[in-house]
Write a structure and sequence with these properties.
With 349 residues, the protein is mostly beta strands. The chain is built from one helix and 29 strands. 6% of the residues lie in helices and 53% in strands.
Length: 349
């Protein structure tokens, strides 16, 4: 009888310890820095990328993670309106109402599964404010004590970087936008506030941020101006899906300044997985841009890479099938294509 009691006690302790281990999370602020190592000029835009991870194995509850970003506002300022990019659709950004140098980022969109192999890349834009080196700082914190989850490592939750700002550019660019139109064209518009020895502009497009092709040029400009000037160009044959546009300024001496590329999505249906939840034989379809070349990975909630079989392509969608029987729960599907990484939560019933 005593042996039986000891057995149940030991089993209970083992299950309790296993449960506690499974509930541990580890929010890591991996990095913060510019997407390009090149210095920027005063008023020039630079994209900042933040990468955070939950090394798990447990899930961080909704609204359980807070990221705090600060910049040195002597040399940098946040671009307005602020453009925030999050492929996972799990994060939202809120500027501080009391400090102009601070952004708060929260996981309002759902649980953060343990995903130590991929992380969450988040992007926003800043501009050069004055000549010098502008610091970037990231701190992360978890507020989950009341939900039965603990942070197993609180020592890796911060990161830092910097952006170098040089002297004023020949042209001060206020904005550059790309908007999809109902007639399947893209309207490109940009505004400058100062132009010195300006010869003109070149607009290019790309699917992958590696190879760019010419859309058009604007050369009917005055060499010098200190007033707001607006420019427009129309892309009559844009790419479908996600693509990028970049603006290059050319001065009278032939020197060029290339501004950061902006993205646009031209699709009739959104990216995603269907059906979701996945049932029966584990077959599902993935809506994406390039089914032949996209890199697709499938992860368990604890970050393990799982096998996934590609079974075909139908109407531009990639047909997939899980290999082996999966336990019911939430899984993570990542898609790498056209210079972006998207994340989709997949439910298996």
């Amino acid at each position: 009888m005593k042996k039986t009691i000891y057995f149940y006690l030991l089993s209970g302790f083992f299950l309790l310890a296993h449960w506690a281990e499974a509930q541990q999370v580890d929010l890591q602020g991996v990095s913060i820095g510019p997407t390009s190592s090149s210095a920027i000029a005063i008023n020039q835009i630079q994209t900042v990328e933040v990468i955070v991870k939950n090394n798990g194995p447990g899930d961080i509850p909704t609204n359980g993670a807070t990221l705090t970003v600060t910049i040195n506002t002597t040399y940098l300022r946040y671009d307005t309106p602020l453009t925030f990019t999050d492929a996972s659709n799990l994060w939202t950004v809120t500027p501080s109402t009391t400090n102009a140098n601070t952004l708060f980022i929260y996981n309002t969109g759902g649980l953060l599964p343990g995903n130590s192999t991929i992380g969450y890349p988040l992007r926003f834009n800043v501009r050069g404010n004055a000549q010098g080196s502008g610091d970037l700082n990231l701190t992360s914190s978890i507020s989950i004590g009341a939900q039965g989850v603990s942070d197993r490592d609180g020592s890796n939750q911060s990161a830092s970087g910097s952006i170098t700002v040089n002297s004023t550019m020949p042209v001060s660019l206020v904005s550059f936008t790309a908007k999809a139109q109902e007639n399947h064209t893209v309207d490109l518009a940009w505004t400058t506030s100062l132009e010195t020895n300006n010869k003109g502009f070149l607009v290019e497009r790309s699917k992958d941020l590696a190879l760019f092709e010419k859309v058009g040029e604007v050369s009917e400009v005055g060499a010098n101006s200190n007033a707001l000037k607006n420019y427009h160009l129309t892309d009559q044959t844009p790419y479908s899906g996600t693509s990028y546009y970049r603006l290059t300024q050319i001065d009278l001496s032939g020197k060029t300044t290339i501004y950061p590329a902006i993205s646009i999505v031209f699709r009739e249906d959104g990216y995603g997985v269907f059906p979701n939840p996945v049932i029966n034989d584990g077959r599902f379809s993935l809506r994406l841009d390039d089914p032949e070349t996209a890199m697709v990975n499938f992860y368990s909630a604890d970050g393990r890479l799982l096998p996934l079989q590609k079974t075909g392509i139908q109407s531009g969608n990639l047909l997939l099938k899980t290999t082996g029987k999966l336990s019911a729960g939430v899984y993570l599907l990542t898609v790498e294509e056209r210079g972006q990484t998207r994340q989709h939560r997949l439910v298996v019933e």
